[in-house]
Amino acid sequence: MVRRTIPAALAVTVFVFAVSFLPACSNDDNPVQPNSGTSEAPTLPAMSTMVLTLDFFGVPTPEVDPQSIQSGKPGPELETAAAANRTNWINAFVRVLCLKLLVYDALEEPIGAFALAIHSVPQKQSDGGWLWTYIFVEDGVEYSVFLYGKVVDEHAEWRLEVSTNAPGFQLDHFVWFTGQSMLDNTEGYWQFYEPVLPASAAPAVTGSTDGIQVARIDWEHITPTDHRLTVTVNKPGDPDEGDILEFHESLSIGEVNHYDAGEDRHSNITWYPDGTGSITVWDYNNGETACWDQYQRDTDCSL
What is the pLDDT of residues 171-225, one digit of tens each? Predict the structure, then answer.
């Protein structure tokens, strides 16, 4: 899937600042809206259009070490009495966690920047659009986040830019992502980019920093309790180009579908509110569907 490309200095700084705001977003999925003086600004899409929480419907989850998450397979810490006869569900749980972390390991920085910007008050622009701005300084380095939104016909168009004077990594209004959303926020998309920097880090950037597309998220909020996110790797020439990861969760079903374009393989993990579910992946159970019951114990799929 998508790999991180933003240098650690910028990534850590942006993400640390974002963390302090994310709990508020998770408790109230709708971000802070404009005050009465800016009521004509388009409604900001919710954080759940970028991040989907897969809670397995409240089923107690085992502790998983970093090695298991990295490999996408259960490790020794799960080989305990408590995990006995729960191999199918544990394997599914670790794989879902791995896939989710792989995606947001690559996209957490622009998502974190969005979380910062949405908590500022938007200002009307001369072209009829609106601008949310967040600026902070860390160790003498200034970071500026600009979120633009504008209503066009029946949808809103979005663009998030970042500028920084970080030594060796100067960005001038680099477009981190663009997007569109229906005015009722029932569907839309985000297109993410990574910067194209000069071979030498010494020269300062002049003019806006160019970018190359890396991944796209198409999202649907079919109902307040039915969400779907589809992540597509669309970076030209990337080894994972064409890979598709779909998250879907509602009150009646949760599922993750993964398509590996390079291997032309499909995988599926499905679970239900009663605790039952199944996993179908090429390198587990000889590629055959494996199931678990309402207690997450291995069971015959025909039952």
Answer: 899 999 999 999 999 999 999 999 887 655 444 445 678 899 999 999 999 888 8
User: What percent of the chain lies above the pLDDT cut of 70?
Assistant: 73
| 3-class SS of residue 216 | strand
Residue 126 CA: distances (Å) to CA of 15, 129, 145, 152 = 31, 7, 19, 15
Domain regions of the chain by residue span: 8-225
Beta carbons of 113 and 162 less than 8 angstroms apart: yes
Of 169, 170, 217, give the one whose Cα is nearest residue 193: 217
User: Distance (Å, rounded) from C-alpha 40 to C-alpha 110?
Assistant: 25
Instruction: Identify which of 35-39, 77-81, 298-302 has the greatest average pLDDT.
Output: 298-302
Distance CA 16, CA 294 (A): 38
CA distance 167 to 211: 19
Residue 14 CB: number of other CB atoms within 10 A? 26
Determine the 3-state secondary structure of 67 from DSSP: helix
The residues that bridge with 125 in the sheet, in sequence order, are none
Question: Are 97 and 89 within 8 A, CB to CB?
Answer: no
Strands 277-280 and 265-271: antiparallel
Q: How far is CA 66 from CA 54, 72, 93, 113, 199, in A?
A: 19, 10, 14, 26, 34
Average the pLDDT over 228-245 and give the result: 94
- Alpha carbon distance 274, 276 (integer Å): 6
